[in-house]
Amino acid sequence: MSKYIEMYKSKLVSPEKAVSVVKSGDWVEWGSFACRPLVLDRALAQRKDELQNVKVRAVCTAYGVPEIVKVDPTREHFCYNNWHFSVIDRKLSDKGLCSYVPQLYREAVGYFNNYIQVDVAMLQVTPMDQHGYFNFGPSVSHAYATCNNAKIVILEINENIPRALGGNSESIHISEVDFIVEGENTPLQQTPVIPFSEEDRMIANHIMEEIEDGSCIQLGIGGMPNVVGKMLAESDLKDIGVHTEMLVDAFVDMYEAGALTGRKKNIDQRKIVYTFALGSQRLYDFINNNPMCATYPVNYTNNPNIIAQNDKVVSINNAVEIDLFGQVNSETSGVRQISGTGGQVDFIDGAYNSKGGKSFICLTSTYRDKNGKNISRIKPFLSNGSIATTHRAAVQYVITEYGKAVLKAKTTWQRAEALIAIAHPDFRDELIKEAEKNGIWRRSNMR
Fold first, then answer.
1. Does residue 189 lie within any of the structural domains?
2. Do the annotations mark residue 25 as ligand-binding?
3. In-domain check, residue 404
4. Which residues form the active site (predicted)?
5. What separation, in Å, do the N-terminal and C-terminal C-alpha atoms of the chain show?
6. What gap in Å lies between CA 187 and CA 189, rounded to an integer?
7. Pick from 36, 38, 101: which is nearest to 67 by CA?
8. Known binder of ligand: residue 122?
9. Which of 30, 177, 371, 400 has the smallest set of CB atoms within 10 Å of its CB?
10. Which residues contact 49 (CB under 8 A, 6 or more apart)?
11. CA separation for the pair 391, 430 (Å, rounded)
12. DSSP designation for 105
């Protein structure tokens, strides 16, 4: 241990000294989700007048607007980019202060290994352990690939980061680090449990009809996945397993209720497998040094071939809208980026190829626009400028509060009929007319 302490002391510097290595034109990669650097952000922002065109990439910004964005509204000095938008990133993008980076989440590690230049990596991590390792905590994702391909690695220590057991690639050794900064031990950003609506509860009821003992669950973010987790915790289902990209509080509910054992999994048996965690302090306390939790890099958790090795994989994800051809938009409102592709496509493919697996795209049938007008989420075509997150041929189940539509192996007219049947009743006649106009309706279809 004494050897590692000496190495630690030799690499420990002030935030100002650490960020002095950043040069104009550099690409700087930040940690993701709850582990974005804070004191390093502030120190880098103070160098604004010395730097030009420093490009920064992050994932799903927490802790408020980054200091480098606050000090540079023209983006001449710092160009901020993001792999997956949070509410903060969305609002920054609306002002022209944040650019989106499209990705298939499962490919993130490969991007760093093959395509991405990283001049400086900056990440928040746990304090060093007795073996000289720093743990990436709840934000493993592509953290090691970022550091492994960076010219300079700077770690910001935060004593509040939980130690997440692997898996693999959950830690980095001090011998691989250039500089260490001791941060202010800010509590991790907590995301409150999103409240669910009556429509969410109805959608969750439809999903619950399809889940069996021994199912292996993936949940996305939002009110509806949360209510599914709550219902699973309160159900009589047993031996539920977990293989997910995002670990949320609902899994803790399931575990404490005794529903979650992972006993029937074919791989990582009895382990809760995830690549990042985002939620309450209760969730962070749950993963801390918990041998039941195994965090892996995203090229493992989101690899469809690995996902499919477990039986009865159930993938549950939200969507913004779907058109009558079955194309799913889960990330934009027109041309406005509101979130990201994430791992939806990864888990749809993995669940479909799992023995007994099922993937669900879930959305309320309508939403209200800013003028209070009721708008259908099932549309003749995706809204102008909207991105097709999931290809129509990949979609298996679509669920609204009005029921379930199975799209696999369906003709275009069968798809249209199945989707119109679960649309809000007020819009069904209009959707039928549009389907007829677009040649995806037959006279034998429902009326």
1. no
2. no
3. yes
4. 245
5. 75
6. 6
7. 38
8. no
9. 371
10. 77
11. 24
12. G
Q: Which two tokens stand for residue 352?
A: 């479909």
Asked if residue 385 and residue 257 are part of one domain, the reply reads: yes
Rounded Cα gap, residues 268 and 244, in angstroms: 12
CA distance 421 to 393: 19
Q: Who's near 209: CB < 8 A, 6+ residues apart?
A: none
Q: Which domain holds residue 269?
A: 198-437
Q: Kind and range of the H or E element at 405?
A: strand 403-406
Per-residue pLDDT of the chain (447 residues; tens, 9 = 90+): 689 999 999 999 999 999 999 999 999 999 999 999 999 999 999 999 999 999 999 999 888 999 999 999 999 999 999 999 999 999 999 999 999 999 999 999 999 999 999 999 999 999 999 999 999 999 999 999 999 999 999 999 999 999 999 999 999 999 999 999 999 999 998 887 777 789 999 999 999 999 999 999 999 777 777 788 889 999 999 999 999 999 999 999 999 999 999 999 999 999 999 999 999 999 999 999 999 999 999 999 999 999 999 999 999 999 999 999 999 999 999 999 999 999 999 999 999 999 999 999 999 999 999 899 999 999 999 999 999 999 999 999 999 999 999 999 999 999 999 999 999 999 999 999 999 999 999 988 876
96 is in an annotated binding site: no
Distance (Å, rounded) from C-alpha 306 to C-alpha 246? 16
**Same domain (yes/no): 228, 348:** yes
DSSP state of 96: T
Same domain as 210, residue 155: no
- Which of 182, 213, 230 terminates a domain? The answer is 182
Distance CA 67, CA 45 (A): 6
Residues in the chain: 447
16: how many CB neighbours lie within 10 A of its CB? 15
Sign (positive or negative) of CA dihedral 394, 397, 399, 403: positive
What's the CATH code of the domain at 124? 3.40.1080.10
DSSP 353: T
Looking at the structure, do residues 231 and 103 belong to the same domain, yes or no? no
Tokens of 296: 């892996």
Q: Is 254 annotated as a binding residue?
A: no
Co-location of 170 and 218 in the same domain: no
The Cα 142–Cα 139 span in angstroms is: 8
Torsion of CA 330, 333, 335, 341, to 10 degrees: -20
Residue 224 is assigned to a ligand binding site: yes
Total number of domains in the chain? 2
